[in-house]
Description:
This protein is mainly alpha-helical. The chain contains 13 helices and three strands.
Amino acid sequence: xxxxxxxxxxxxxxxxxxxxxxxxxxxxxxxxxxxxxxxxxxxxxxxxxxxxxxxxxxxxxxxxxxxxxxxxxxxxxxxxxxxxxxxxxxxxxxxxxxxxxxxxxxxxxxxxxxxxxxxxxxxxxxxxxxxxxxxxxxxxxxxxxxxxxxxxxxxxxxxxxxxxxxxxxxxxxxxxxxxxxxxxxxxxxxxxxxxxxxxxxxxxxxxxxxxxxxxxxxxxxxxxxxxxxxxxxxxxxxxxxxxxxxxxxxxxxxxxxxxxxxxxxxxxxxxxxxxxxxxxxxxxxx
Length: 286
């Protein structure tokens, strides 16, 4: 089906997104194997009481390890804001997707909270990330932005959900890649890192299945998703003291994420690359 896609350039994708179509939701639900009910019933995140925080109070993390942990805190602490944005899109009309997204937000909240205590035990209760520059803050907090996003996504219809799933997949894969680096920076982080990898791998399994089914069902969904990927930036928030991703991962470390993304229907030319402007990563057509 992907071979029938017209040229995947931004202008063509915008034109296709403007047409009306949507995938067969009943067929997608019928073929989805991920157990959302089981996941929602067993999810816990990483809670503070399950980690020996006193160890990190006695001997704080070194600069590089603390920076890596704070980078993950920034990546996960924005999940509630992302959930607010997503649930004004057609995603909120699908109960399985809504149940998954709210449970994921719960796991991210507790995991980010616990990681912030590990990174900076003395700063408990302080903001997890730096305030954005004034211009960015003005745009991000502008009251019209969520309204515009809601109107646009609902005009696009259910095909927009494929974009939600694909962006969530890339986010989960990148979080896991950084988490795998933590034990190399401080051996005491091995347990937390392993648990975080397990959590994000579960998230990736759900997103991967949804993206595969939805992108495979609709060329219009593929166009909408490519448009969304071209504006994707990770992490969306960088805390004080967090390093650029280039200090933690080599460009080759991003190849598995690119390979996973490129294997999805209609996304064979999309690649994850470092972003010098943001200090994180972005998705490019390569």
